[in-house]
Amino acid sequence: MKAVALAASVLGATSASIHAEQITGDIEYGQYLSSECTSCHSNQHTQQGIPKIAGYTAEAIVTLLHAYKNKELENVTMQTIAARLDDEAIAALAVYYASLP
Ligand code: HEC
Predict the structure, then answer these.
(1) Which atom of ligand 1 is nearest to the CA of 61?
(2) Can you tell me the distance from the alpha carbon of 79 to that of 10, in angstroms, rounded to the nearest whole number?
(3) Of 34, 40, 73, 100, which residue is 20 to 30 A from 79 by alpha carbon distance?
(4) For 46-88, what is each residue's pLDDT tens digit?
């Protein structure tokens, strides 16, 4: 999938900085924010082409959400959602989703 390939390349390019500074976020805030996401993203399985993001690494979620925010990834829905998330919200969602199976 294009997004995953992009995430992999972005992660590869910036892995030094990402590993130097581990992602920290408020899991409870992330869980609170995720109520908006679960209407589309099931935590159990991919449905109707919408990927299950539960269990992604925090790095992957941060990278993907920033890519939507910067419009490097083309999905208007996700671009709109990501545009409203600040760094604290993105980090919180990332650590929450990474904590799920
Ligand atoms: C209205 C439906 C909808 C909502 C709400 C929604 N998403 Fe998405 N999201 C999508 C769709 C559709 C895609 C797949 C886009 C594609 O494949 O191009 C996606 C893709 C993603 C991806 C990339 C997954 C991958 O493997 O490429 C992430 C990460 C993501 N969403 C996170 C979130 C988060 C976090 C929230 C809540 C703040 C959220 N989404 C809310 C529909 C939604």
Answers:
(1) 29
(2) 17
(3) 100
(4) 989 999 999 999 999 999 999 999 999 999 999 999 999 999 9
